């Protein structure tokens, strides 16, 4: 496989290899590279016997062209030299690090390895190094105005003085750190595990109570119904408490949902148990009182979960926020879920912050009950506004428990932090 003029070098290496088990790859390379580079054989001009006819108009015959072409010979020689070098290196460095050997030998291979050397760095990062990429990232995440600066600053502090890894660039290091921080924000330490908590409540012979709150039209009732469906699919019986006694049609909307859900999971599929029921007392009544009655009813009936729908209210509406704080204080639900739509981006963040503040302001309790988790709806309708998810969890520290991704009962997901961060970084 190598040209005959390499036979001597190859023999020499083979002999060395068979005599000395520990011949190093470097020595092997030196053997090859120290051996004289083959020179293309000179084609001796044979003196023509007698007089040859002259060739005019630069015409060269095929046979003459072949003898005059040295290029293929030289190229194949060099290729074979490299093949031998590579094979011998691999052979001798099974135990050693092949790559290290190559790097040690880079001086010899000059240009080719200087490229590798350029990528290997041991530089400590300074704030100045990161300034331009951090500015770019701040601009990129500018719609998360409240947090993008803080986030970038914390990444800079974290990375300052860090030694750049092999093959890393400042830009890739900063981006990776930012990406990790975003994922960390979206995965708060406190996880809400509803199924586990419902089972705990079952052991205590009481229903697990979830209250839903948020402004009008964000998808409270629809996503309450989706969560109901998910619970029933997990074989838990549910009582829906119609505590939106304010908006016309709110009770009927829930009635329709409970009928449909009951039809999807009829009692005969669940050992005769009625899996979904509605607790309704019409309009204009005290919502906190209806919720309390519903919870007591569920306890008596041995139902597993109570889902409390509440009237939509603007975060600035004092009296209505007071009524919600009362409902929560009186009933002490296990979970208070804030329903916000991803569609409105930062507006949803504002709603959530003000809901929390109002609940704290209007609570009579020493330690007010605030929002425990978030349901982010209409996720299917957004493209670049996924940042609302990050802002909401960053600002409140509360997890996104569910993501609504459509209008059917199946369109409910857990938050995929990595997918959101991926979308954020490329948006
Ligand atoms: P509520 O006033 O907060 O109870 O809101 P509704 O539950 O009545 O929902 C308002 C509208 O939003 C309805 O048309 C729902 O079908 C729609 N909706 C709710 N959740 C989602 C979702 O995740 N994706 C989409 N595309 N639409 C949704």
UniProtKB/TrEMBL annotation:
It is a peripheral membrane protein. Coiled coil: none annotated. It comes from the Eukaryota. It is found in: Endoplasmic reticulum membrane. CDD domains: SRalpha_C (cd17876). GO terms for biological process: SRP-dependent cotranslational protein targeting to membrane. Pfam families: SRP54 (PF00448). Residues 399-412 form the SRP54-type proteins GTP-binding domain. One of its GO terms (molecular function) is GTP binding. GO terms for cellular component: endoplasmic reticulum membrane. InterPro entries: AAA+_ATPase, P-loop_NTPase, SRP/SRP_N, SRP54_GTPase_dom, SRP54_N_sf. Keywords: Endoplasmic reticulum, GTP-binding, Membrane, Nucleotide-binding, Receptor. Belongs to the GTP-binding SRP family. This is SRP receptor subunit alpha. It comes from Eptatretus burgeri.
